[in-house]
Automatic annotation (TrEMBL):
P1 and P2 exist as dimers at the large ribosomal subunit. InterPro entries: P1/P2_N_sf (IPR038716), Ribosomal_P1/P2 (IPR027534), Ribosomal_P1/P2_euk (IPR001859), Ribosomal_P2 (IPR044076). Pfam families: Ribosomal_60s. PANTHER family: 60S ACIDIC RIBOSOMAL PROTEIN FAMILY MEMBER, LARGE RIBOSOMAL SUBUNIT PROTEIN P2. Belongs to the eukaryotic ribosomal protein P1/P2 family. It comes from the Eukaryota. Keywords: Phosphoprotein, Ribonucleoprotein, Ribosomal protein. GO terms for biological process: cytoplasmic translational elongation. Plays an important role in the elongation step of protein synthesis. The keyword NADP does not apply. This is Putative mitochondrial 60S acidic ribosomal protein P2. It comes from Leptomonas pyrrhocoris (Firebug parasite). One of its GO terms (molecular function) is structural constituent of ribosome.
């Protein structure tokens, strides 16, 4: 699918709940995008009957499944565990760094 047509469809959906192919074409022409009729027809068939919120949710679900497949672990399980472990370590490093700098430059270094 061509993202330029999806973007035009999303933009058109701001003023219409179900944009038509003519609406998408008008937006593309307004910004000098060359229209490939076959590709645009395929995109319009693919999004038919679904609103933009549904399309975004479906796309997000696909992105999540791709991320979990590439890491070998469920995306939902790995991210919170990593974030929880990193937060205390980062806070300890930050406190340590502040203590080392002193009050000479009041925390504002020339090259920080």
């Amino acid at each position: 699918m061509s993202t330029k047509y999806l973007a035009a469809y999303a933009l058109a959906s701001l003023s219409k709940p179900a944009p038509t192919q003519a609406d998408v074409e008008a937006i593309c022409k307004a910004v000098n995008i060359e229209i490939e009729a076959d590709t645009l027809a395929f995109v319009m068939e693919s999004v038919a009957g679904r609103d933009v919120a549904t399309l975004i949710n479906e796309g997000a679900a696909k992105m999540t499944s791709m991320a979990s497949a590439s890491s070998g672990a469920p995306a939902g399980a790995a991210a919170p565990a990593a974030g929880a472990a990193a937060a205390p370590a980062a806070a300890a490093k930050k406190e340590e760094k502040i203590e080392e700098e002193g009050d000479d430059d009041m925390g504002f270094g020339l090259f920080d």
